[in-house]
Amino acid sequence: MLDVPRLALAVVEAQVGSLVDVLPVAVLIADREGQVLRANNAACEVLEQTDLVGRSIDDVLHCQNVAVRQRYLVHGDDVLRLLVLPPR
């Protein structure tokens, strides 16, 4: 049986993810629990880390003095967290 909510969320993430990759601002996309699913090059540069995917947001941002703007993309029971970090 087709899981329509998950499929819709995957399509949106794929579209947003493509845009995120080319943005000049630092963006992280995480799941509901805070595991990083995608990080653009600007985020890697701002955080001075290259291995962000798969790590928890708390671990990534620990000891970072940055004001993070966070938004939630909700579709049914599925949630993606979009985090935008200011440039240094």
Description:
It is a single chain. By secondary structure, this protein is α+β, with helices and mostly antiparallel strands. The protein has a single domain, classed as PAS domain (Beta-Lactamase, 2-Layer Sandwich), CATH 3.30.450.20. It contains 3 helices and 4 strands. The protein has helices at 4-22, 41-47, 57-61, and strands at residues 26-31, 36-39, 69-75, 78-85. A 4-stranded antiparallel beta sheet has the order 2-1-4-3. Strand 3 and strand 4 form a beta hairpin. It is globular, with a radius of gyration of 13 Å. It starts with a helix and ends with a strand. The relative contact order is 0.24. The mean pLDDT is 84.
Question: What would you say about this model in short?
Answer:
This protein is α+β, with helices and mostly antiparallel strands. The protein is built from three helices and four strands, in the order αββααββ. The protein has one domain (4-85): PAS domain (Beta-Lactamase, 2-Layer Sandwich), CATH 3.30.450.20.
Largest sheet: 4 strands, antiparallel
Total count of strands: 4
**Major sheet strand order:** 2-1-4-3
User: Termini separation (Å)?
Assistant: 47 Å
Stretches where pLDDT is under 50 for at least 5 consecutive residues are: none
| CATH topology title | Beta-Lactamase
Quickly give the CATH architecture.
2-Layer Sandwich
Judged by helices, strands and strand pairing, the structural class is: alpha+beta
Bin the helical content: 25-40%
CATH class: Alpha Beta
